[in-house]
Specification:
By secondary structure, the protein is α/β, with parallel strands linked by helices. Helices cover about 35% and strands about 25% of the residues.
Length: about 450
């Protein structure tokens, strides 16, 4: 399946942008793409998902080892380094290593329950080391937005206590009003606001192993499942689902949990405030003297969620799968006797899971002028072979028809596509930074 997706991407490059027009040239290139077997692509994914890279956490030494392996493949195939003679475009990337699984213990009167990993809790990816015990306080989304007339903390005293916090914001329409709410959707804001109000620790009501948070001195936190939170509310005589429904209607709850309901969070981490990560950048120069200055970017993020103690999050779907397709396309184009007329820039982004660090850095430090960049194809979580999805495809019919043709002729899967619309919410993947950087 990944070979078929790769072919569809190559069709877009070949027919729409690279300027191949002769039937013989197209046949030669297609033959070269067919030489990249699905087994080879799966081997790429297997390598990048192996335990030795420890989940490819951006900033870590293991991430750099994965980056070096990819750069080695570029060099082996003849893909040139694009970063001023280097395959690596470095940028600042603080991170935390989670040394153990820690512990979360819930107590209610004389009853204690140690939560189980990973079904009931996950350690905080950027938690401070230490142990904190205290009473629980529910603060909804944890937002204080005075200019919007909204404050989740106005009815409760969180000082010295452990808060329960929801992800997201209470506004969902994709319009200009959402843009005013978006700064409050970031995990980093929520954490800093909790500390600003004096919270001693935090439970995030969401099981996500996500490094897109912030390290704050002496502030320990962990993620807990919705079922755990539901039980805590039930023990307090409250209906969790009803409270969440009220939140979505901007009805802020005004209650605290009984004093006998407490939580203890233990965390063991190591913080690296001055770490670096990198984008891996490779270039195939165009063959046309005039068009070679125009660039097509094929990108996807190389980093993953990392590991927690001895538990590795391999990040195969997100995003060894996308990187594997990019590597396959790079090999096919680099080893072909027929070269595209426009240049093709391959970017394996770092720091995507941390908050789009790598793609943001690239937009501020582009390796090709933004006006010369004609297209960016982002391969993020390309899937497991059950379908095919082209985000924004329907808004660009001249591009979409090539994907549609490739699907009809080769993939034979149900194909989905969306229309482009401006996103007023928090950006989620690397293409959003490149679009903002260009427009």
């Amino acid at each position: 399946m990944r070979l078929k997706i790769l072919i569809s991407v190559s069709f877009l490059i070949l027919f729409c942008f690279s300027g191949f027009s002769q039937e013989g040239e197209t046949g030669k290139i297609l033959t070269n793409f067919h030489s990249i077997s699905s087994h080879e692509l799966l081997d790429f994914a297997k390598e990048l998902s192996s335990d030795k890279y420890k989940g490819r956490l951006s900033g870590s030494s293991e991430y750099f080892e994965a980056a070096k392996w990819c750069a080695g493949k570029f060099a082996e195939w003849g893909v040139k380094p694009a970063g001023n003679g280097s395959y690596f475009q470095e940028f600042p990337n603080e991170y935390s290593e989670v040394l153990s699984l820690g512990e979360v213990v819930y107590s209610n009167n004389n009853t204690e329950k140690t939560l189980s990993f990973p079904d009931e809790y996950l350690p905080g990816s950027n938690s401070a080391s230490g142990k904190v015990t205290g009473e629980w306080v529910y603060v909804g989304y944890g937002i204080t937005a005075t200019e919007l007339g909204y404050d989740d903390c106005k009815n409760v005293d969180v000082k010295g206590k452990i808060i329960i916090l929801e992800s997201g914001i209470p506004y969902s329409k994709n319009d200009t009003t959402l843009a005013r709410w978006t700064p409050y959707a970031y995990h980093r804001y929520k954490f800093r606001n909790a500390v600003k109000h004096g919270a001693a620790g935090m439970n995030y009501a969401s099981l996500i192993a996500n490094p897109n948070t912030v390290y704050l001195n002496d502030f320990a936190y962990a993620h807990v499942s919705n079922k755990v939170v539901e039980q805590i509310f039930l023990d307090a005589g409250k209906d969790y689902e009803a409270v969440k429904k009220d939140l979505q209607e901007m009805k802020i709850p005004s209650f605290s949990f009984p004093e006998n309901q407490k939580i203890s969070i233990s965390a063991e981490t190591k913080y690296f405030p001055n770490a670096l990560a990198c984008n891996v950048v490779g270039l195939i120069e165009g063959s046309d003297p005039e068009l070679k200055d125009e660039v097509i970017i094929i990108g996807g993020h190389l980093d993953g969620q990392g590991s927690m103690g001895n538990v590795v999050f391999p990040g195969t779907l997100d995003n060894s799968s996308g990187v594997s397709d990019i590597l396959g396309a790079a090999k096919a184009l680099a080893t072909s006797e027929i070269k595209p007329k426009r240049s093709v820039l391959f970017i394996l982004f770092g720091g995507e899971e941390c908050g789009l660090y790598g793609s943001e850095y690239y937009t501020k430090n582009p390796l090709s002028p933004s006006k010369k960049t004609k297209l960016m194809i982002n391969l993020d979580m390309v899937g497991n072979g059950t379908g095919f999805y082209l985000a924004n495809g329907k808004s660009y019919p001249e591009l979409y028809k090539h994907f549609e043709s490739a699907n009809n002729n080769f993939i034979h899967r149900q194909m989905y596509a969306s229309e482009w619309r401006k996103n007023y919410g928090r950006p989620r993947s690397d293409e959003s930074k490149l679009r903002k950087g260009r427009y």
